[in-house]
Amino acid sequence: MILTQCAVCATELGRTLGKKCGRCSTRYCGAECQVQHWKDGGHDTLCKKIKKAGGAEQYNANKKYAAAVAVAAEKCAEDTKGQTCYICTQALHWKTKEGLVRGCSCRGTAGFAHVSCLAEQAKILMDEAEYNNLDSKVKRWMRWHTCGLCEQDYHGVVYCALGWACWKTYLGRPETDQARCLAMNVLGNGLSEARHDEEALSVYEADLATKRRLGASEDSILVTQTCIANLHARLGRNEQASNMLRDVYSGRVRLNGEEHEETVIAALNYASSLGGLKRFEEARSLLRRIIPVARRGLGENNDITLRVKFTYALALYNDTGATLDDLRESVATLEETERTARRVLGGAHPIVQASERSLENARAALRAREGDVDALRDAVAALGK
Q1: Do the Cβ atoms of 154 and 104 come closer than 8 Å?
Q2: What start and end residues bound the annotated signal peptide (predicted)?
């Protein structure tokens, strides 16, 4: 269950506390809130509707999905103006009347679609793979979060809408069903992409509790622990996040070895947390070891390699003790990262936009430091006259 709070007073119920409506499974902390919701909260008129939709969890997912699609279409409206869906070839969806989105790395006239079309396409591919027991299940599942044209992950509000689409599709399956487990992860990632951090944290914690109860693999548990730690960092709980990410990195080295992609990602996350604690020298030391590993194993154009270099540049110029050479290296690294990311991922991608902003800050810091050096040089020269 993703619904973990009382529908009336929002008391946190976790997975097992409180009680549920016997008809529609809406959750409450106790009988008092349930009675209040029936009398004053409109539940008497909604109960049958919720049950007809498949219960409280399904009803909630359907509503969240519709809202997320509307947000995504509005966010993408300027970019999609005058375009048509590459799947159904229409500007407005024939049934939902939703607008178009594009939240990947496609450019030009490519990649425009309706969230409903993307979700239906992903579902059909997975249904076919499951029915025929195909070996391509993992690759097909990626269509829930990866563009079928540019093969890059969706981002921002588009990923969030697809996360709700995925979850509402599979939430009715048993907890042990692989698609349901994966759908919870896609939802958490989508909420995180859209910066709905508290909601994402709730999803990941429910996911982790389920995995531990079902005896999931260490790899799967490490993935979810990473997501939880990153959200703690975004919510300002940096010490807690860093400790968790250190343990995840150690776990990845032990499980996968130092040069595995997942270990590189774990190192990146841990280094980012160190930066958040202003432990910049530790972050730089770790990233200097990881950059050549990422280049060798993943390639210069890989988005993970780009993120590693970007994080290294931040650790250079954000340090108040940075030298002039540090600042120059930071600017050069960000220039290279921004240029490569723009060519590979497109100008709208978050890595590109973050690199642009950081490059401006790094250049400003460099100009200020060079100005100080020039002023000191002039003062020394004046004393010698």
Answers
A1: yes
A2: none
Q: How far apart are CA 91 and CA 260, in angstroms?
A: 43
Q: What is the DSSP string of 271-313?
A: HHHHHHTT-HHHHHHHHHHHHHHHHHHH-TT-HHHHHHHHHHH
DSSP conformation letters of 127-139: HHHHHTT-TTHHH
When pLDDT is cut at 50, 70 and 90, the band that residue 270 belongs to is very high
pLDDT band at 378 (very low <50, low <70, confident <90, very high): low
Across the strands, what pairs with 113? Answer: 101
Sign of CA dihedral 241, 247, 251, 254: positive
Identify whether the C-beta of residue 145 lies closer than 8 Å to the C-beta of residue 153. Answer: yes
Model confidence at 376: pLDDT above 70? no
Rounded to the nearest 10 degrees, the angle between the axes of helix 350-383 and helix 324-345 is 160
CA distance 67 to 89: 23
pLDDT mean across residues, the chain: 91
Give the model's pLDDT for residue 379. 47
Phi, psi of 13 (to 5 degrees): -110, -5
Banded pLDDT at 306 (limits 50, 70, 90): very high
What is the rounded distance in angstroms from the CA atom of residue 192 to the CA atom of residue 269? 15
Pairing of strands 19-20, 27-28: antiparallel
